[in-house]
Amino acid sequence: MIIDTLYAPxxxxxxxxxxxxxxxxxxxxxxxxxNHRTTDKAKAYLLCFGLILFFGLRPIxxxxxxxxVYAHLYDRYIWLGTLRHEGEWLxxxxxxxxxxxxxxxxxxxxxxxxxYIGILLWAAIRISANANNNAVYLLFLFFVSAFLFWSGAVxxxxxxxxxxxxxxxxxxxxxxxxxxxxxxxxxxFLAISIHSSIALTILCIICSFYVFKSIKYPVIIWFVSIxxxxxxxxxxxxxxxxxxxxxxxxRMESYLLGDRNDADFVLDRGGFRFDFLLxxxxxxxxGWYLIVKKGFTDRFYIILLNTYILxxxxxxxxxxxxxxxxxxxxxxxxxxLLWAYPLIxxxxxxxxxxxxxxxxxxNMFFTYFMARLR
Length: 374
Prior knowledge:
This protein is mostly helical. It has helices spanning about 1-30, 35-55, 65-80, 90-100, 105-130, 135-145, 150-155, 155-175, 180-190, 200-210, 215-230, 235-245, 250-255, 275-295, 300-315, 325-330, 335-345, 350-370. About 40% of the residues are buried.
């Protein structure tokens, strides 16, 4: 039990140290991204490997919230050959395949960690290459120090893995080559096949591609959502329930209907969440400044930001629901990329090294602070 309780502090403190060291490196180096591409990638691979083992071999403990539930489902299949619930086919296929080849529950967790964290590193490598710099390790640190990273590794395994696949798909979908676009659509399909609720974020990216060419109207929709929430409260919950948007996902539907009774953490409580709203607004304000004031016209970033705004507006309408942060996660997983991408893509300020270090540290500080509330 002592080892269990030390797991989270070890992770958060270790990542905090890595972030501080990176911030110092950014401030003292002439090149904020590092001068050695090979060394940068090696550090990212080493961190990735360590995290895969760290999370894959974690104890089966209630400290990790849903880890025992996943372990029970896996053991149940090993002993009985059946799954308690029929869920998304790809998630079930990964589970049953690992069990059929004889992997232990920790072997299965290691496979999931490998996919979840490894795909994030793959995406970081592609984004860094697109930005023509050596920012792989920096980008990967943004992902690892993000608010939702821990949850995706030990609690929300399905949505964590689906989110990683979505981010990777995003790096392919804007490419002009037909093969890369086809691969992106395949990845989106696989993401839905792991956690069907990610379809909402995919719908938002479709709207960002074909409906909204600027951030003006998505931002208006975001503010209107707040007004509608204040005026009508849970009215939209009833509409979404009647439409059956999450009927295929029993767990998300249980959050929507308020069937869960274990909201012990401050993050899981319903009501008007000004803290979550402020957290959600920060990258929107940053994006508005970059696009309107600095003339930032990068298409990848604008579509990314619009996707985030639209998905986050959906969460706002459900804010009063218990466990509404589960719906917020459908947009929040894009959070680190919204901050990191414009900073590594363009030189926007003369003192950009200091701003980069400050944002990276703020990203980690918020994660560290929220972890203390659990």
